[in-house]
Design brief:
Elements lengths: L7 H16 L5 H14 L3 H7 L5 H11 L17 H4 L4 H16 L6 E7 L6 H14 L4 E5 L7 H4 L8 H5 L9 E2 L6 E4 L8 H5 L3 H9 L5 E5 L8 H9 L1 E7 L5 H14 L2 E8 L3 H8 L12 E4 L5
Parallel strand pairs: 1-5, 1-6, 2-4, 2-5, 6-7
Antiparallel strand pairs: 3-4, 7-8
Helix pairs in contact: 1-2, 2-3, 6-7, 12-13
Length: about 325
């Protein structure tokens, strides 16, 4: 329903938007009329007007917008997905936008590649590499890219926890020949994303990761995927990251404000170069002090909510 202040075009857009919420069972036709009246009088968006009237939540609006643009999210509450993954749970927020900017920069830098294969590497634990690996995998899958997230950190695996998956079998059992090569499990709610968990911890992960074990596995799965994102152990705790990056071919370094040491980053960079891996750039996590306090007090759920600076060039000596 249009008011005298609305144009035919804006009225038509509002009617279409209202129809989507009616079809979703979130609004009645009478409620849509109220929303449109406020939308026109206050000159705001349909969703904003509905939220102001208390008829919808922001999550309701985001869910319908996601469906409208065929954008895979996890806006329906699920116990399987870790609530730190804003690219899935808050896809229109600032942190999700930061992840998309990283994705866009990577896509530009790797535009000449038939497929994207990227290892995510940090010098030490706790710098955000597993979170970034998961977020980038989600972001690429949201573009419609067939994406495989491989947890190659068989020392402190994290991806099965982030996606609520079992870890009874996985990369370790496949490389050891105990289970057949496969793409792992499909991420709930994300039809283009598969997760290959690390699997049970082997006695010596480096032995089963040695060239060309991982590269052979990726080669066998290459026809099924456009993007491979590989999580790695901290580079300063073992040689695994070197071996993994060598087989993946390219790596993205991750650093954290007030945590990463420049000498460690330079050493990690040198290790990756020695392994023959191409360093695409460095992602810098700006860590907020309040998040640290919340985490210590057991209140914080999003240690990496402050992702501010994205891709830079490789570190200079």
């Amino acid at each position: 329903m249009a008011t005298e202040n609305s144009t035919p075009a804006s009225a038509g857009a509002a009617d279409k938007m209202g129809a989507r919420f009616v079809e979703a069972g979130l609004l009645t036709p009478d409620q849509v009329t109220r929303v449109v009246e406020l939308q026109n009088s206050a000159n705001i968006r349909f969703g904003e007007a509905a939220v102001k009237l208390g008829l919808l939540t922001e999550q309701n609006v985001q869910a319908v917008l996601s469906e409208q643009f065929n954008y895979a999210t996890a806006l329906v509450p699920t116990e399987s997905l870790d609530d730190s993954l804003d690219i899935a749970l808050a896809p229109f927020g600032l942190e999700a936008e930061a992840i998309r900017q990283i994705r866009a920069e990577l896509s530009i830098r790797l535009s000449d590649q038939e497929k994207i294969s990227l290892a995510i590497v940090s010098a030490a634990e706790g710098e955000g590499k597993s979170y970034l690996a998961a977020s980038l995998a989600l972001a690429f899958s949201q573009m419609g890219k067939r994406t495989l997230l491989i947890d190659a950190d068989m020392r402190s695996p994290r991806q099965h926890e982030l996606f609520g998956l079992e870890n009874k079998t996985g990369l370790s059992t496949m490389l050891a020949g105990r289970t057949a090569i496969s793409a792992g499990g499909l991420a709930e709610g994300f039809p283009h994303l598969h997760i290959l968990s690390a699997g049970p911890k082997p006695p010596n992960p480096l032995e089963i990761l040695l060239q060309p074990a991982l590269s052979n596995l990726m080669r066998q799965l290459a026809d099924d995927f456009d993007v491979f994102i590989v999580d790695t152990p901290a580079a300063q705790t073992s040689s695994d990251a070197q071996t993994i990056s060598q087989q993946v071919g390219m790596c993205l370094l991750v650093a954290r404000q007030h945590h990463s040491r420049l000498d460690d980053l330079r050493q990690t960079q040198a290790q990756m170069k020695t392994a023959g891996a191409q360093i695409i750039g460095t992602v810098y996590n700006e860590f907020a002090e309040q998040d640290a306090l919340d985490q210590l007090e057991g209140k914080g759920k999003k240690l990496w909510r402050r992702l501010r600076k994205w891709l830079s060039g490789p570190l200079q000596k």
